[in-house]
Amino acid sequence: AKRLSGKTILITGASSGIGRATALEFVKTAPDVRLILTARRQEQLEELKSEIGAVSGAAEVLVRKLDVSDPADIKKFWAELPKEEWKDRLDVLVNNAGLVKGLEHVGDIAEEDVNIMYNTNVTGLINMTQAVIPLFKARDAGTVINIGSIAGREPYPGGSIYCSTKAAVRAFTEALRKELVSTRIRVAVIDPGQVETEFSVVRFRGDKSKADAVYAGVEPLTGEDIAEIVVFVAGRRENVVIADTLVFPSHQGGASSMHRK
Ligand code: NDP
Ligand code: 8X3
Question: Which terms are listed as keywords in the entry (predicted)?
């Protein structure tokens, strides 16, 4: 908690699920933390800001609408971020924004879905990281935490695009960590298994009954479970890099290995 006191943390995709839970977990751990909360849905971010205010009056929260799939929006975000107060003080970037669309097989996947998944999960994460690395290098400090997925390690039918985006996150993260070995900058990837969030609702384009069926007879992880790990990784001593973490609920053994009651 002491190590995270007063730290400045930027979270993408903070409007729901893992990102939202991560914001709250940082505040619970370090009540005077400074958070930059971003996502496309500003209303949810404002609600989260109020909720954080009720948990801790000492936390500082900056809400910014940001679509990471749009390179121009990312440029605008960094250009408008107050320099001394926020940009120059950034300690941690949590690249969490991401999504899956559908379960279609190759040949039947809408071009738009391919682009949305790649532009968000891969290009968005790369562009956000490219923006922070020069800031971190200037101070020889900082932590990048990327949210990957078991899907990036174990591709499954119907997941060609999503799984390959997460494999790209894994490769990008590893190359970056190796590029930075002469620095104090830490680079981590956390790969969750099944977590119940809005993820499956988004996958099935708002069809809640299809989303619920994914979690029928199983006990998935919660956003909070992953949030605790993000905060743990961020809160280690400066010389400790938890480079790579795979997290399952107890019934899960792999992307397609699931015990159902
Ligand atoms: P949610 O759908 O609950 O949250 C996804 C978040 O990403 C939302 O806050 C959403 O905000 C944001 N997001 C989506 N597109 C964009 C965009 N273009 N720009 C900015 N923000 C965006 O799902 P999860 O919390 O589960 O997902 C978080 C991460 O965890 C993702 O990277 C996902 O791939 C990964 N993951 C999830 C697993 C699961 O089983 N749930 C397992 C493994 C990994 P908004 O719509 O407001 O923009
Ligand atoms: C989400 C996990 O296996 O449902 O990243 O694609 S999976």
Answer: NADP, Oxidoreductase
CATH superfamily of 8-258: NAD(P)-binding Rossmann-like Domain (3.40.50.720)
Q: How would you label 39-57 residue by residue, b for 16+ Cβ within 10 Å and e otherwise?
A: bbeeebbeebbeebeeebe
Cβ of 149 below 6 Å from ligand 1: yes
pLDDT tens for each residue of 89-113? 999 999 999 999 999 999 999 999 9
Is 162 near ligand 1, meaning CB less than 6 Å away? no
Mutation test residue for ligand 2: of 99, 122, 149, 154, the one with most atoms within 8 Å of CB:
149
Give this prediction's pTM.
0.98
Query: What ipTM describes this predicted complex?
Result: 0.98
Residue nearest to atom 7 of ligand 2 (CA): 151
Task: Give residue 29's identity as a one-letter amino acid code.
Answer: T
Q: Is 151 in the pocket of ligand 2 (CB under 6 A)?
A: yes
